[in-house]
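Tutorial, part two.
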Amino acid sequence: MKKGLIACLLLGCCVALYGQNTTSWDVLRGNAKEHLINLINIDTSLPEPDETKAARYIYKQFNKHHIDWDIFIPSKGRANIMARIKGTDPTQKPLLLISHLDTIPADLQAWQYPPFTATEENGNIYGLGATDAKNYTAIYLALFNWLSTLDKKPVRDIIFLATSGEESGSETGLLWLAQHHWDNINAGYALNEGGGIIKGDNGADLVFAEAATKLYMNIKVTALGSEEHSSMQPDENAVYRLSQALAQIENYPIPARLTPTAKTFFKSIIPLQDEDGQTTIQMLLNGNPQNSQNAAEMMAQDPFFRTQLKDTVTPTILSAGRDASSTAATATALLNVRLLPGSDPDEFFNRLNALFENDDNIILEVSERPQTPAPQAMDGSDPLFAAIRKTAAKLMPRAISVTGLSPASGDNEYLRKLGVVTYGLGPDMDPLEKNSAHAADEFIAEQSFYNQLDFVAGVVFDFAYREYLLPLKPQ
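Running the prediction step on this input gives:
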């Protein structure tokens, strides 16, 4: 449905802003921060995210800027919202700025800060969705609104899209839109969540543009036992059997594999390594099969490198009895599996299942299969990555820009299957530190948020306008 326009401007006189570079960056950053805080303050968490409230906030901002918009509602409480700035050359495929409105649930007991009220402290902004993915929505919204005030038009269309349900499989979001409304979108390129800027020493930063994702699979493990009075301490205890089975899975040696995306990534980061690191990567890339595998095992001790080299399996949900005085007949665990592109889900499952082929008390079953085959990974040969590399060189003159594999999965996978050239471009990240996304006290550093805004804006300027509308200053 279409919404009428309301004659109210948030940014003031657009002509004046275009010529005032410092003021324009200040306006962009101030508006982006305001949007982030306001979006965090709207509860869109699973299991029943009311995304319409967030969509309502967004379209009110569009109304202030005379921006027409479309809202797509697959079911009550679920919403996707889209707007478009028309370009001057219809032969140029549109650029999509996509993010999602929903968040994971919040375990209130685990949070020190209120998850649904943004808190500013220690230079950080705390709140559910601060990095996944309301920071993206806030940045795209601020940038899109500012661009709409300019007399200068982009060469290609720029599309804002905030989607529903990404955290639960995108069935009310991108998958539904692709089936029912893709003709309204029809993007050729996209920037989405994923990737980030890995800060190095003396400005030797790494721009990690997410170009491929792992495949998502869930495996349910069920241990059988006897249901008896707990005072008898029965030998056939399902919980003990489950814990022993999980220990076997934890110790199962998953072989390393070098995908084309990982090969490009490791080759690109050689200049950033010390002598030992360079030697190990050279062995990984150029050694004989045994030496390469040894190097991979050594590198996989680093949690981030492990995600680039191996399929991973992580227990996430445990379930057993409900009565403290009785043992359970069954105990279950959900294993969340992330497979490298090219891995065979059936082969992976069969390898795990073989661990218990002589144990009738342990049953494995696939509860969620990945969508195969994996989409073609981005190789960095397209004009969108060229804009990423060019902008990185302006903001971080010594930076290396590289395509990489995201350990997670999401809408980028579906976009690539639709033929959309898609990269994830996120805030500052440190692979050696704990990621706050999907964790209690999720936060984003305010300066990192501004760095993300600057980078995204620069890429949009170069790719959609073919010139930098504002000067980019080294970060």
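Residues 14-204+402-465 form a domain with the Aminopeptidase fold (CATH 3.40.630.10). In part three we will examine how such features are distributed along the chain.
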